[in-house]
Amino acid sequence: MPLPRISVLLPAFNALATLPRAVASIRAQTFTDWELLVVDDGSMDGTTEWLRAQAAGEPRMKVISQPHGGIVAALNHGLATARGEFIARMDADDESLPERLAEQVALLDAQPDIGVVGSLVEFAGDRAVSQGYALHVDWLNTIISPEQISLNRFVESPFAHPSVMFRRELVARHGNYREGDFPEDYELWLRWLAADVRMAKTPRVLLRWHDLPARLSRTDPRYNVESFYRLKAEHLARWLHANIPSDRKLLAWGAGRLTRKRVKLLEAHGITVTAYVDIDPNKLGRSRAGHLVLAPEQIPPGAFILGYVAKRGAREDCRARLEQRGFVEGRDFLFAA
Prior knowledge:
Elements: E1 6-12, H1 19-27, E2 34-41, H2 47-56, E3 61-66, H3 71-81, E4 86-89, E5 95-96, H4 100-110, E6 114-124, H5 131-140, H6 146-151, E7 165-167, H7 169-174, H8 184-194, E8 198-210, H9 216-219, H10 225-243, E9 250-253, H11 257-267, E10 275-277, E11 287-288, E12 291-294, E13 304-307, H12 314-324, E14 333-335
Parallel strand pairs: 1-2, 1-4, 2-3, 6-8, 9-10, 9-13, 10-12, 13-14
Antiparallel strand pairs: 4-7, 5-8, 6-7, 11-12
Helix pairs in contact: 8-10, 10-11
């Protein structure tokens, strides 16, 4: 049997309510040279029986059964079985639009320097009920080019996981998903970005990202805010050690409680912040965690700025102020969260 170009990797656990829609969206793809690997992670709701019945009539579909071990074990089990040149991720509660695989393969074929490609995503939930998640999707859809993805890696995870396709060879070169108290996809992107893997997105919506109450990002402690902070701090510290000379002054823009908490995490990894920057006149000239709070115009020449501002529009204002002084993003300042 010839090898497929794409292995679609779909873990499923008690997903019978949504899985038929997800599988149908793969079978409806205009690009047809794929295998669908559904890793049944010990389901007990009829998912297993439904999958076996579907696979009996679809030679491109393979069901991999394992005792319930969680998403990381399921993903790595699927990766070990995959035969395709490319791995396309898919989740049991989402939908790929018909052109998804075709457009992502075309980008990877046309740009051999790109290792990972995602897409814009449609927020398929209630924006009024899940405003934070919807705003996250809005932000995701502005981060498209390899440069934008690289510069914004420490703000949030730059991809919706089920929208991603990557070259299978990257797994052997840089490692697969890892178990830990962190989101497994974000850890993978940060690790691969640190290894200089270039990542991009197709500039149109190719996935409907459903926001359901049982979604792991809502229920699993590995996806809580503190887990993201710890993971980002570890990788940001490594980036700073590798890219910013130890004698260059490092300042944090934002002097509030959350910024100080993030700085404390960095300091645990050997990073020294010498001062804070803020525009709040009530904070200027005061000491925060032993560091003086400066106004933007007091930033010393040659300093490197970590922008920890989070309010809507604050990053844009911070970026504009720094660029007016000749600071270059990635060289002289970087945003994090």
